[in-house]
Amino acid sequence: MRNLEEVRKDIDAINQEMVRLFLRRMELSEEVVRYKMEHQLPIYDKEREQAIVEAMVKTGDPGHLEAYLRDFLKALMEISKDYQQEVLDGEGP
Ligand SMILES: O=C(O)C(=O)C[C@]1(C(=O)O)C=C[C@@H](O)C=C1
């Protein structure tokens, strides 16, 4: 078994990548909501969310971690929608 410090180093590296990707995803989410505002479309798109989760479960092949992957993706989209609502309300950048 590897020691705690080594494993934490790997987690730190993953966190760095994830933060970069998360912030990029949020930028794209803002782009989407600005499009939606212009075209009078609702923030919430149930079909799109379901399609994302199913596609990621299929390609990610998470095995026994499937429920956690589903929770992770749903949490990401909740955060994305919160941000979109903020932009819509005019509180965004
Ligand atoms: O694809 C969209 O329509 C988005 O607004 C993006 C996004 C997401 O964060 O993935 C957010 C809200 C929608 O309910 C679906 C997906």
Automatic annotation (TrEMBL):
Which one GO biological process term can you cite for this protein?
Answer: chorismate metabolic process
- Residues covered by the Chorismate mutase domain: 1-88
The entry lists its GO molecular-function terms as: chorismate mutase activity
Instruction: Write the record's keywords in alphabetical order, separated by commas.
Output: Coiled coil, Isomerase
* Coiled coil start-end: 4-31
Looking up SMART domains in the UniProt record yields:
CM_2
What EC number(s) are associated with this protein in UniProt? 5.4.99.5
Listed PROSITE patterns: CHORISMATE_MUT_2
Q: Which SUPFAM superfamilies match?
A: Chorismate mutase II
InterPro entries (alphabetical): Chorismate_II_sf, Chorismate_mutase-related, Chorismate_mutase_GmP, CM_dom_sf, CM_II_prokaryot
Q: What is this protein called?
A: Chorismate mutase
The organism named in the record is: Alkalibacter rhizosphaerae
